[in-house]
Amino acid sequence: xxxxxxxxxxxxxxxxxxxxxxxxxxxxxxxxxxxxxxxxxxxxxxxxxxxxxxxxxxxxxxxxxxxxxxxxxxxxxxxxxxxxxxxxxxxxxxxxxxxxxxxxxxxxxxxxxxxxxxxxxxxxxxxxxxxxxxxxxxxxxxxxxxxxx
Length: 149
Prior knowledge:
Elements: H1 2-13, H2 20-34, H3 36-43, H4 62-65, E1 78-81, E2 92-95, H5 99-112, H6 137-148
Antiparallel strand pairs: 1-2
Helix pairs in contact: 1-2, 1-5, 2-3
């Protein structure tokens, strides 16, 4: 897991192996091995996992009923929840480490929104601050970006 995590961080930073296809296939294979529910979803298919596009997508509804995190729950983990507006039960996503999450949101934001310029600047967001909406991944993203940039 640590090696794959480092490869993903390098890929997001643009300094790793540029083969998205091979890396994404490794991620899908890892998830099938480490997440029993995803492994069952994969084993129910007729085709082998030869390309990352062969990997089945996880239905959104699954996040309402399954813990799709490969490590045991821990109180230090970050938990994001859906708003629950589409049903009576909100979905959850547990993250033991935010390193990759932060890297994957920051690099594209700087490149595509800030045109590569990381100089701090004032900006306004209509998204509530994470301190008032702590289980919102969007609030976490926007607050983290605002504090950094």
